[in-house]
Amino acid sequence: QRGPGTPVRYVFDEGHHLFDAADGAFAIHVTGREGSELRRWIRGPEGRSSGRGRGLRERVGELLLHEAEAPQWIDNADGFARDLPGDGWHQRIKQGGPRGAWEQFLSAAISQVLARSQDAHSPYGAECDVRPMTQGLAEAAARLHSVLGKLQEPLSALAKALRQALEDKAEAWDRSDRMRAEALARGLERRATMLLPAWRNALASMHQDTPEAFADWLAIERSEGRDVDAGLFRHWIDPTVPLAHEVFTPVQGVVVTSATLNDRPDHAVGNAQPDVWAYARGRTGAHHLKGPVHEGAFASPFDYAKQTRVIVVNDVTLGDSGQLAGATRALFEAAGGGALGLFTSIKALKAVHSRIAGPLAEAGLTLYAQHADGLDPGTLVSLFRA
What we know:
single chain; alpha+beta; four-stranded antiparallel sheet; two-stranded parallel sheet; 14 helices
């Protein structure tokens, strides 16, 4: 949704990540994690949960005191949100006691994945096709589809009432109230007109063939052998389609930069020259645009062959912090202090820092270290550049 103040031009650096970013942004996940986040947004912290989060009732506050039906809309949303997964849903499902329509859907989805998994006890995630569905999963999906439709109604009504209030009370509200109302209206609209319909569409199509533009599957996601999420996953086969339509097309201009996007030219056919930009257009969605697309490649200002040296140190015993510190100190001194040391272990970084900071200082070289000097990364980068 575009409104006043919305940017009309965008610059995307590191454009080779656009495809993956779009894949995540436009994916639809009807999972425990997504459902519990919506429940928390509507109902606020529950049970043993604590924190500064607020539910919908607290967010609305006095903004809709003039609207007689607002309390009922909030009550309805609060009630329907009880069917969303709450804290501890993993354990309840594992113990065979799912609570509410969403947890029942997750339980049925997990059962189908495990039934079709060759190793149900693997520490890694598992997935399976949506169809053919078990009878229990089909019924659970239908129930959840119905519940989400009911939840959509009060959220839409509250969003509409807030939009009307923003018009009617433009002069009565102060800037803080207007900002609160605008932010809440956007949040309600996004959930009522985008998120919930997308979930319902994915659930409804479980009984049919998946639309050609999408790939659907059921999955259990695990981390270190522990289940962390589960449910229905829907991704665009080409996520640059919605990227081009929703982000690029409405604006006046988009710039995408990358050092590697045109490194993979298409193979030439016959006597034709290879299209060095085909891969770049495909990964960014530029080939979906109707307007002109301008392409340009610029040589690097650096002569890496002359300005770079790669030194492979192979005479330092792995795990010996003393030898590592000695080698690091020698390299830093040889570079006259203009050096950056990268570590994959904070423990190793601190061990080397403690050994070489003093000797380097005596040689007139100042050593800065993240995790050791208490400096944030931004300050360290500024010091290094100086």
